[in-house]
Amino acid sequence: MVPRPGLTIDISLRELPFLAISAGAAALPAWTDVPPAAALPVAILVAVQIRFSRHVRRT
Q1: Per-residue model confidence (pLDDT) at position 15
Q2: Residues 6 or more apart whose Cβ sits within 8 Å of residue 7
Q3: Are 42 and 29 in contact (CB under 8 A)?
Q4: What integer pLDDT is reported at residue 59 of this predicted model?
Q5: In degrees to the nearest 10, what's the CA dihedral of 13, 40, 42, 33?
Q6: 2, pLDDT greater than 70
Q7: Rounded Cα distance, 45 and 20, in Å
Q8: Which residues have a Cβ under 8 Å from the Cβ of 47 and sit 6 or more positions away?
Q9: Sign of CA dihedral 48, 40, 33, 29
Q10: Phi, psi (rounded to 5 degrees) for 12
Q11: What does the alpha-carbon distance between residue 41 and residue 50 come to, in Å, rounded to a whole number?
């Protein structure tokens, strides 16, 4: 993904409780029949905070 000029994408880790929840979601395939291809993206989305912001340049 190539961002446009004026578009900012910030990716950062969340606080500790969310990291513990995402670690449990990542370990879910070991305990159940959930495929890892389904559990790992969910764990990443829980652990990471993604912000999109658009800056408009006025001329």
Answers
A1: 77
A2: 52, 53, 54, 55
A3: no
A4: 65
A5: -150
A6: no
A7: 13
A8: 13, 14, 18, 19, 22
A9: negative
A10: -145, 155
A11: 14
pLDDT of residue 29: 81
Q: What does the buried/exposed string (b/e) look like for 5-26 if buried means 16 or more CB atoms within 10 Å of the residue's CB? A: eeeeeeeeeeeeeeeeebeebb
* Residue 25: both structure tokens together: 């979601």
Which residue, chain included where needed, has tokens 């159940």?
Answer: 32
Tracing tokens 């959930």 back to the chain, one arrives at 34
Tens of pLDDT, residues 3-58: 567 888 888 887 777 777 777 777 878 788 888 888 778 777 777 888 888 877 76
Q: Which residues contact 42 (CB under 8 A, 6 or more apart)?
A: 25
- Kindly state the helix (H) or strand (E) to which residue 49 belongs, with its residue range: strand 48-54
